[in-house]
From TrEMBL:
Signal peptide: none
Gene Ontology BP term (one): proteolysis
InterPro entries noted in UniProt: Aspartic_peptidase_AS, Peptidase_aspartic_dom_sf
GO MF annotation, one: aspartic-type endopeptidase activity
Name of the featured protein: Retropepsin-like domain-containing protein
Annotated Gene3D superfamilies: Acid Proteases (2.40.70.10)
């Protein structure tokens, strides 16, 4: 079973779309990847599939495997290679496997990419007019930099960008124990300390989230909720969240003060707790550089 992100953002605001026309260059003079913002923080990129067609895909560091809408899969006459379940908070949905011979965005491409054909209609209900989600299985082929200040997305397979990025290296955690026998998720997971937590926590850095969401907080937080908040997950489904006291988040030598935190309310459980305790939005940083080969990130807080 693939436990993909069941929710990664709570939609509070009216959808806002802004086209990015960056004049600042990526480190190492790497060409930036054009994108536009939806819901103020979600990056939508143009993707070409199998040498044809132009499709809008959400770029999401919190999704393990690239997703494609069934309508696009049908129009491309993609073959199916078996079925699976995609788990979200308390729910699961059917999906099927397929393979794309070529996936391109900007000047970058990946061949023979295995994908999930998955109904994205709930995502579109949140204001995302997309035909797919570009996940970690695509991004892991590159060094990745997300610059929130200059609105830059940079992908590089030459090593030029890495040589120009400065800052302390934060180790990425590769979970060693997965209870259901599946391979560990290739996600951006870092160890952090929360001001009120009884133990260190593992947080996934997520470009699709606009806040901090913690799972199964009874295991490491003894805090009362301050309020309940309705929200919409990135899967388009309604959720009820508990608002917790703000937490100081420390990642290595970096400190993020008074970060707003929510968790799933009541008896709602998140079945994806495979190697991480929650989600932290990438928008809390000026920029984030991810180096998949050597498993580290360079984080520059706002």
């Amino acid at each position: 079973m693939f436990n993909l992100k069941g929710f990664g953002c709570i939609v509070f605001a009216i959808t806002a779309v802004a086209t990015v026309t960056a004049e600042t260059y990526c480190p190492g003079k790497v060409a930036s990847v054009p994108y536009h913002l939806v819901n103020r923080h979600q990056m939508v990129v143009e993707v070409s599939i199998n040498h044809g067609g132009r499709y809008s895909f959400l770029l999401d560091t919190g999704t393990q495997m690239t997703l494609i809408d069934p309508a696009i899969a049908s129009s491309l006459q993609l073959p199916e290679y078996g079925n699976t379940k995609v788990a979200s908070a308390g729910m699961s949905s059917s999906a099927s496997f397929s393979k794309l011979a070529l996936v391109e965005t900007g000047l970058h491409k990946v061949t023979d990419l295995k994908v999930l054909v998955y109904d994205l209609s709930n995502l579109r209900a949140t204001g995302l007019t997309i035909q797919g989600v570009l996940g970690e299985d695509f991004l892991e082929h590159f060094d990745v930099l997300i610059d929130n200040v200059h609105k830059l997305l940079c992908l590089d397979s030459s090593g030029a960008m890495r040589a120009d990025v400065r800052g302390p290296h934060t180790a990425l955690i590769i979970p060693s124990e997965i209870t259901d026998g599946s391979p560990p998720p290739n996600l951006i997971i870092v160890e952090a300390r929360l001001s009120d937590a009884t133990r260190p926590v593992r947080l996934m850095l997520d470009s699709g989230a606009n806040g901090a969401i913690l799972f199964n907080t009874s295991e490491y937080l003894a805090l009362r909720q301050t309020a309940r908040l309705p929200g919409t997950g990135v899967d388009g489904r309604q959720r009820i969240f508990s608002v917790l006291p703000p937490q100081d988040v420390k990642i290595g030598s970096l400190r993020l003060p008074a970060v707003p935190v929510v968790s799933l309310a009541g008896t709602q459980k998140d079945p994806r707790g495979k190697g991480f305790d929650g989600v932290l939005t990438i928008s809390l940083f000026r920029r984030v550089f991810i180096e998949y080969r050597d498993h580290f990130a360079v984080l520059d807080p706002l």
